[in-house]
Amino acid sequence: MSEPTRIGVLGRADLRRCAELERILFPDDDPWSESAFASELDWGHYYVGAYAGELLVGYGGLGMAGKPGDMEASVHNLGVDPVWQGRGVGRALLRVLLARADEHLAQVFLEVRTDNAPAIGLYEAHGFATIGLRRRYYQPSGADAYTMVRPARVDRTVENTP
């Protein structure tokens, strides 16, 4: 099995595979449909995929809100094919999403299942801290979620400019 060869912007041709991975990854929590992903793209949210050859093995999405200088970002989803988990695919996708948020000096929010220790560890390693608990956030399973935030990364050279 080859390693992912690239990370690129997600296209409409990838949405069926995204929905397939959602059903595998989140069978008890109302997985996103192909049309839900299409709506995300229609709204202009930023989505990237990890590819092994032509096969999509992971995806991640970031929404941005606010005006320049006062932006906020939210990781809408991050999913990796179970066969590819533990190989750095999620980390690579997250880094691309965070780089996009950093371009806009945006703080980044996300929700993660409280029982998803690998994801929580990944987020903490990238500067996220838990700021809240959302009881029964995931439906229909009723699983709880932590709300996490990573402060905006501010370019110090810009910050110190008079």
Judged by helices, strands and strand pairing, the structural class is alpha+beta
Described by strand count, sense and barrel closure, the largest sheet is: 7 strands, mixed
**Gross geometry:** globular
The structural domain count equals: 1
The helical percent reads 25-40%
What does the radius of gyration come to? 16 Å
CATH topology: Aminopeptidase
Number of strands: 7
User: What are the segments in which pLDDT stays under 50 over at least 5 consecutive residues?
Assistant: 156-162
Strand content: 35-45%
The N- to C-terminal Cα distance equals 53 Å
Total number of helices: 5
Could you state the CATH homologous superfamily? Gcn5-related N-acetyltransferase (GNAT)
GO molecular function, one term: N-acetyltransferase activity
InterPro entries: AcTrfase_RimI/Ard1, Acyl_CoA_acyltransferase, Bact_Acetyltransf, GNAT_dom
Keywords: Acyltransferase, Transferase
Pfam families: Acetyltransf_1 (PF00583)
